[in-house]
Design brief:
By secondary structure, the chain is an alpha+beta fold. Helix content is 21%, strand content 37%. The protein has a four-stranded antiparallel beta sheet, with helices on one face.
Length: 107
């Protein structure tokens, strides 16, 4: 799909526990992501049942969604790093094609 004035990039999203966010931020940075967005207290129904979104006592005890957008050519390194990172931690990763209006913000 071509959208006039927009550039195709890759979005990598990970839902994990709050206690793992600092480690995951390091994985994102080391794989070439120049920025990310994190949202705490996400909730939903998953493989292990319902994950409530309310804060228990701190942000380490809740689910967090962290995502980044990067150039398509940089995505395989990040996807590989996150897959390895998730091999012994709770979480799920989503990878999708996105279109952005300011690609220079993501390089």
């Amino acid at each position: 799909m071509q959208l006039e004035g927009l550039s195709r990039m890759t979005r990598v999203e990970v839902v994990t526990t709050g206690q793992n966010v600092a480690l995951l931020q390091g994985v994102f940075k080391s794989a070439g992501a120049v920025g990310y967005t994190a949202m705490s207290s996400v909730w939903g129904l998953g493989h292990h049942g319902v994950h409530p979104g309310r804060l228990a006592f701190n942000e380490r005890d809740t689910q967090v969604l962290i995502f980044t957008v990067l150039a398509e050519e940089a995505a395989p390194d990040l996807v590989s790093a996150v897959r390895h990172w998730l091999s012994d931690r709770p979480g799920v990763m989503f990878v999708s094609e996105v279109y952005v209006s300011r690609p220079e913000y993501f390089r």
